[in-house]
Design a protein that fits this description.
Elements (H helix, E strand, L loop, with lengths): L1 H29 L5 H32 L8 E4 L4 E7 L10 E7 L4 E7 L2 E5 L5
Antiparallel strand pairs: 1-2, 2-3, 3-4, 4-5
Length: 130
Amino acid sequence: MSEEKMSETNKLVYAVIGVFVIGFILVAVSKQEPSKEQKEGSAMVKNYVALQTMANQKCPSAIKEATGEQVFFPSETDSDRDSYITMKWVGENVKTGGFKTASCTIRTLVGGISELKIDDKVLISKKDNL
């Protein structure tokens, strides 16, 4: 009877070891290279972050240079999340000579500000470099 008990115990030990081995194999297989779709998604996110960062650096300084008024947070943002981002601001000091509205567009093909409008007056207008 003790031999039978040992064989049942051995079966249980082997089953537990088998489960661990299968688990390790599944983890190893799941850590393969990312798929093409995952790489494309990652590249799109990185591109949008780069556009957003460039716009947050260049647009406020261009508006300050043109108007003397410092802007911080845009009131509206428009983007296709791939090739352009447009940020719009509403002026706060209109009565003291500030601007009413400002719009700044960054395009990846231009590599910087492609259009800057302040109170419907175009200050910068660059075409895409093709």
